[in-house]
Design brief:
Layout lengths: L1 H12 L1 H4 L2 E9 L3 E7 L5 E6 L5 E7 L3 E4 L12 E6 L5 E6 L3 E8 L3 E8 L7 E3 L16 E2 L5 E2 L31 H17 L15 H7 L11 H13 L38 H9 L8 H13 L3 H8 L8 H9 L20 H8 L11 H10 L2 H17 L3 H15 L4 H14 L2 H12 L6 H14 L6 H13 L6 H14 L3 H10 L5 H17 L3 H8 L10 H13 L3 H10 L7 H13 L3 H7 L6 H14 L2 H11 L2 H11 L2 H5 L5 H10 L12 H24 L6
Parallel strand pairs: 1-5
Antiparallel strand pairs: 1-2, 2-9, 3-4, 3-10, 4-7, 6-7, 8-9, 11-12
Helix pairs in contact: 3-5, 6-7, 7-8, 7-9, 8-9, 10-11, 11-13, 12-13, 12-14, 13-14, 14-15, 15-16, 16-17, 16-18, 17-18, 18-19, 18-20, 19-20, 20-22, 22-23, 22-24, 23-24, 24-25, 24-26, 25-26, 26-27, 27-28, 30-31
Length: about 750
């Protein structure tokens, strides 16, 4: 019985000793190469060589009784480089069938994994092989109790890196990399390793970055960039790693493809995949596409992938993005991700799949599509402006007309107004005309550049015409006026109301409804605005929430007291409002002498209590409620003149006038400091201050009583006493007049 138990135990920890061992085969895509990883048994040798047939390779593993588990290989990779991966029956080898003129290279990773990389190239490679591994104490059950000494002491096997993850360093250095547990020989190598490990953990979801702002560039960096048309800075590899990591970590939106950490460095889509001029002509709809449709279905109604791709490219070439996407959906399994992304972008959609994410600094054509497909880039993201403008000039005129205004807007939103205007100027020269799309694009650039009046004038003109851009121009005109606190003409208010009704059931309906609500708020028609918000049942919840937040903010900032109290106190606290709106409401309630209501808004709206604005507003509320000790607690850890001002007010309520005096002196508030010194009994400071009732009274309080050695009455003594009494009486009268309470 004991012997049977030992056999079961050995069978659990040493499965290869009792049955045939199945070797897992894993895969991963890494931009310009595909990786296959096979975990081999202890003590096994391996070799990789070309097969006898073209485009084949053979991986031999020197071990008996093994098999290969390839069931999940193509779950993570496509068949653009490896068309098939099969284990030969009864053998210990794996056969690679390639679908391109590629080469395969292999190396041993961490003494237990054979890594095979397949990348573009046609140069034959020599066979790669390894000697059998030395197992020692690390094999079998002994590995569980192995004692390791040296730089990384411990018991049991060392933690292993997932080789399927890419690294910052190029792949040819994998075999030369030092183990992770060995200290780096230089600061640069250590920083690279550290950045790679942080990026790997963040990409895998193990870390949530707390960084919110990228450190400002050094002065010499700014000087180096002056006068350059490109935003890209040449520097060391470590500088580019830090820029990429900081840019990715600074994003607040985890779903933004541009914010994904790209550990393997910059991977740019090849220029050959973006050669639009080779995808047909402007008349492809009448000539090329019909002929390609004939070839689309072959024998047994199988789709011809080549014809499918050519048709999709032809559609993208003439700006028919929806049609291109529909064609690609006929064979979604083998669809081209690059063409799919392009088909969306020519229709104004973002690059949701992230095919072009992080490629704005590329030297080729990918930089343009990376910028166009993004909606907002992380801070400090480099943009290769010359490459983008060069690519724009190469595009067919039809596509330039289609994407030019949006590309100009993207440049402006990223802060490069000169590049934005350059795109529109190049487009105008190429077409010889200024279309309404270009005019709208120029107005958007003016708006971002701060030329508010010029932008509003153009937007109002386009909105008043019955054209394809009227709706967008109306929405943007209202947004612009709302942002700048300008009144909106009654005609525009009526126009937004008409559009909101007409477009109610369309995709533009919620946007136009929100524009109408903003127009009402800008013109202080609060009753109508709030009534519209309360009665709209078919508007998406997120739009309603945004409208309510803007309404609350508007009435707290620019509304009269009656409107404010009616809408704020009457409705009570609402959850989901922006924190800045809640704080603005609380501060106004304090100013109106309603700190209890202010405290209710701060505590019942669910906003974060850790932010500095919240803590400051909370402290102001507590001071107004005469709770100075709690106000001091709320201010713990905060610095700044505004904090010192609040602390001084709290200490005044606590009777610590010496602290108040010192605080006001530091803030440069002489009147407040003199008043605090008076209350603290610091007569010397008050007497030496600015001439006035307080200084005179302080000097009187500080003076000593006159002592007369000769007590005999005399006219001189009487005159002295009368003079001092008169001066004292005048000082007291001035002090009483200064401090007299008014009837108001």
């Amino acid at each position: 019985m004991i012997r049977l138990g030992w056999l079961i135990f050995l069978g659990l920890i040493l499965p290869g000793s009792l049955s045939a061992q199945s070797l897992p085969v894993k895969s991963g895509e890494h931009g310009d190469f595909t990786r296959i990883v096979v975990t081999i048994p202890d003590g096994a040798s391996w070799s990789l060589a070309r097969g006898q047939e073209p485009r084949t390779y053979r991986l031999d593993v020197g071990a008996d009784g093994i098999s290969f588990d390839t069931s999940t290989v193509f779950d993570r990779i496509d068949r653009s480089r490896i068309s098939a991966l099969n284990a030969e029956p009864g053998g210990s080898n794996l056969r690679f069938e390639l679908s391109c003129d590629c080469v395969a290279t292999g190396f041993l990773h961490q003494e237990e994994m054979v890594v095979v990389d397949v990348r573009q190239g046609s140069k034959p490679t020599d066979p790669v092989a390894s000697e059998p591994k030395s197992t020692g104490l690390s094999s079998g059950a002994n590995a569980l109790s192995e004692i390791r000494l040296g730089a990384a002491p411990g018991i049991g096997p060392m933690q292993r890196m997932n080789v399927l993850l890419p690294s910052f360093l190029s792949e040819q250095h994998h075999t030369d990399r030092k183990p992770r547990n060995v200290p780096a020989e230089s600061t640069l190598e250590f920083e690279r390793d550290l950045a790679e490990q942080i990026a790997s953990a963040a990409t895998g979801g193990l870390l949530r970055p707390a960084l919110r702002h990228v450190p400002a560039a050094k002065p010499h960096d700014l000087e180096d960039d002056m006068g350059r048309e490109t935003h890209h800075r040449e520097g060391s590899d470590m500088r580019s790693i830090q820029d990429s990591l900081e840019a990715a970590l600074s994003s607040d939106d985890p779903t933004n493809p541009e914010a994904r950490i790209r550990i393997s460095g910059q991977a740019c889509v090849d220029d050959d995949e973006l050669d639009f001029n080779s995808w047909g002509e402007d008349d492809a709809l009448e000539t090329l596409i019909p002929s390609l449709r004939v070839k689309l279905y072959g024998e047994f109604d199988r789709i011809d992938e080549t014809a499918l791709k050519e048709i999709a490219r032809a559609y993208v070439r003439i700006g028919f993005g929806a049609e291109a996407r529909a064609i690609l959906e006929l064979d979604a399994e083998s669809g081209d991700r690059v063409i799919t992304a392009l088909a969306g972008m020519v229709d104004g959609l973002p690059d949701g799949s992230g095919v072009f994410a992080g490629q704005t600094a590329c030297d080729g054509r990918a930089a343009l599509w990376s910028l166009l497909g993004s909606r907002e880039l992380p801070n400090a993201t480099p943009i290769n402006v010359p490459a983008i403008l060069r690519t724009f000039e190469e595009l067919p005129l039809l596509l330039r007309n289609l994407i030019g205004p949006e590309l100009s807007t993207r440049f402006a939103r990223e802060g490069d107004v000169n590049a934005a205007r350059s795109v529109l100027a190049r487009l105008e020269r190429a077409t010889g005309d200024m279309t309404e799309d270009m005019i709208l694009g120029r107005a958007r650039v003016d708006r971002i550049d701060g030329a508010v009046d010029e932008a509003r004038h153009v937007l109002n003109e386009i909105a008043g015409k019955d054209g394809p851009n009227a709706v967008e121009a109306t929405i943007e005109s209202i947004e612009l006026s709302s942002e700048n606190g300008s009144d909106i003409s009654p005609r525009m208010v009526e126009l937004t109301a008409a559009y909101a009704t007409e477009l109610r059931k369309t995709d533009e309906g919620p946007k136009m409804w929100l524009a109408h609500a903003r127009a009402l708020l800008s013109n202080r028609r609060y009753d109508e605005a709030f009534a519209s918000i309360d009665s709209s049942r078919d508007i998406p919840p997120e739009v309603l929430e945004s409208a309510l937040g803007e309404a609350m903010s508007a009435v707290s900032r620019i509304g009269d007291d009656v409107s404010f109290l009616k809408r704020i106190v009457g409705r009570g606290p609402s959850r989901g409002l922006p924190p800045e709106t809640v704080i603005s409401i609380a501060d106004r309630l304090i100013a109106l002498g309603m700190p209890e209501q202010a405290e209710r808004w701060l505590t019942e709206t669910g906003i974060s209590t850790a932010s500095r604005p919240y803590r400051m507003s909370k402290a102001r509320t507590l001071v107004a409620l005469a709770k100075p000790e709690e106000a001091e607690i709320a201010l713990i850890g905060l610095q700044g003149d505004d904090v010192l001002q609040l602390r001084a007010e709290a200490r005044r309520q606590m009777g610590d006038f010496s602290y108040v005096q010192t605080a006001y002196e530091r803030l440069g508030q002489e009147d407040g400091a003199r008043s605090a010194a008076w209350l603290a009994g610091d007569w010397t400071t008050v007497a030496n201050g600015e001439a006035g009732a307080l200084s005179s009274a302080a000097a009187l309080a500080e003076s000593e009583d006159a002592v007369f050695a000769d007590a005999r009455p005399s006219l001189q003594l009487a005159e002295t006493i009368a003079g001092e009494s008169s001066q004292t009486r005048a000082t007291l009268e001035e002090l009483l007049a200064t401090t007299r309470l008014t009837d108001q």
